[in-house]
Amino acid sequence: MITLKGEHIYLRALEPEDLEFIHAIENDESIWEISCTQTPYSKYLIKQYLEQAHKDIFEVKQLRLVICNYNHETLGLIDLFDFDFKNKRAGIGILVKEPINRLKGVGSEALKLLVDYSFIHLDLHQLYCNISEDNHASIKLFTKQGFQEVGLKKDWIRFNGSFKNEYLFQLINN
């Protein structure tokens, strides 16, 4: 599929072989704040999730894709969630796992690919994302792609005993 192939990376469907990668991400406490995770996930649960990953976005209301480079190394994940066909919108989230692969255009290219796919193939009218006020890299990534800040949710995220604000960003397909 040409739509999900970029210059340096491509997006692909989840495979059973992604079990260890997903298990490592879901159990990485350093990112629990952005994933709203509070407890670890077992390999058994992730295996069950992967067995259901083939289901259509219209049925499960989400789509998770793997970000890979052309050496076929797995770099991260990008998701559509809260897929709402009636209102033609979805949330979008992205994670590049290793810090060494961040700030090199991987996230930007992956985001552009999924935005284009969402607007062209899924016929969505808008995408949105929620970003913690102190996640400056994500704010820069999404605004570079054309997302605009449309709201602030005060004291929205509780993490390590304190509250943080969260911005709501939106991209409308004109």
From TrEMBL:
PROSITE patterns recorded: GNAT (PS51186)
A GO molecular-function descriptor: acyltransferase activity, transferring groups other than amino-acyl groups
Cross-referenced SUPFAM superfamilies: Acyl-CoA N-acyltransferases (Nat)
Protein origin, superkingdom: Bacteria
Residue ranges annotated for the N-acetyltransferase domain, each copy included: 9-170
PANTHER family noted in UniProt: GNAT-FAMILY ACETYLTRANSFERASE, SPERMIDINE N(1)-ACETYLTRANSFERASE
Protein name as annotated: GNAT family N-acetyltransferase
Lineage, broadest ranks: Bacteria, Pseudomonadati, Bacteroidota, Flavobacteriia, Flavobacteriales
